[in-house]
Amino acid sequence: MRSCTQITWDDVPHLDAKTKEQLLQSIPPHQRDARTKGIPILGAGQIYPVPEEIVLCDPFELPKHWPRAYGMDVGWNRTAAAWGAWDRDSDVVYLYSEHYHGQQPPSVHADAIRRRGDWLPGAIDPASAGANQKDGTSLIAEYQALGLNLYPADNTVETGLHACYQRMAAGGLKVFRTCRNWISEFRIYRRDERGKVVKENDHLMDCTRYLIMTGLMLATINPADYRDMRDEVDGRGRSELTGY
Predict the structure, then answer these.
(1) Cα–Cα distance measured from residue 101 to residue 22, given in angstroms and rounded to the nearest whole number
(2) Which of 10, 86, 99, 111 has its CA 20 to 30 A from that of 146?
(3) Beta-carbon contacts of residue 1 (< 8 Å; ≥ 6 apart)
(4) Which of 118, 83, 88 has the alpha carbon at shortest distance from 224?
(5) Are 9 and 36 in contact (CB under 8 A)?
(6) Domain layout of the chain by residue ranges
(7) d(CA 34, CA 240)
């Protein structure tokens, strides 16, 4: 029988506050969670060397006027999607929900995704446009027929990784702590000895890249919420054109 116990350096009695502060300054930022909190993470080849406390945030009610979209990665072993809301005023994207299931037909995934809002646009792995071996139809066409509002994503890998990293490091990409599968992938997302991205357990990482590279250009407000906001403005006697 095996067990695993996670401890932080707060559980080590011989380290006082001054020693911890001195040690913290000597630890690279991307290794601080592993060294101080016992969170397993890959350091040398980590693609996003950003401390979790900079990226993660507690869930909150998203304003209705923030446009939203999602990124989607498809496959038999794992199909994933990540939903984001964009605060344009501060240019911060919040990942607030995820879909993470495998070995299910497209109809099951499509149903789960539609439940988040069938009006939402999605940016999907462009490889899904290729014909499958079953009947020659493409996965993107199959999902579109099932009611998803999908568009091929920009899959320029290194450019997309850089765009995501820049946002994370600058506080422009936040993730709700409830996105547990996203957090798990983030911790092990890495390159191999030759500098290539390790294509294992990276489905939500790909979804995030699709969302940032393409989804933000598609992001929109729920039409029902938009009508409500417009009616509220009209009711106050303001001009729809000027807002005054």
Answers:
(1) 43
(2) 86
(3) none
(4) 118
(5) yes
(6) 53-225
(7) 52
Q: Where are the beta strands (DSSP E) in the chain?
A: 56-57, 68-73, 79-87, 92-101, 121-124, 149-152, 173-176
Residue 115 neighbours by CB under 8 Å, 6+ apart: none
Phi, then psi, of 113 in degrees rounded to 5: -75, -40
pLDDT digits 0-9 by tens, 57-82: 999 999 999 999 999 999 889 999 99
Q: Taking the domain 53-225, which CATH number applies?
A: 3.30.420.280
User: Cα–Cα distance between 89 and 92 in angstroms, integer?
Assistant: 8
What is the token pair recorded at 130?
Answer: 């290729």
**Paired strand residues for 68:** 85, 220
Residues in the chain: 244
* Structure-block tokens of residue 62: 């998203």
Q: Within 10 Å of residue 11's Cβ, how many Cβ atoms?
A: 10
Mean pLDDT computed over 1-10? 67
Structure tokens that stand for 223 in this block: 């039409």
93 three-class SS = strand
Q: What is d(CA 144, CA 29) in angstroms, rounded to the nearest whole number?
A: 42
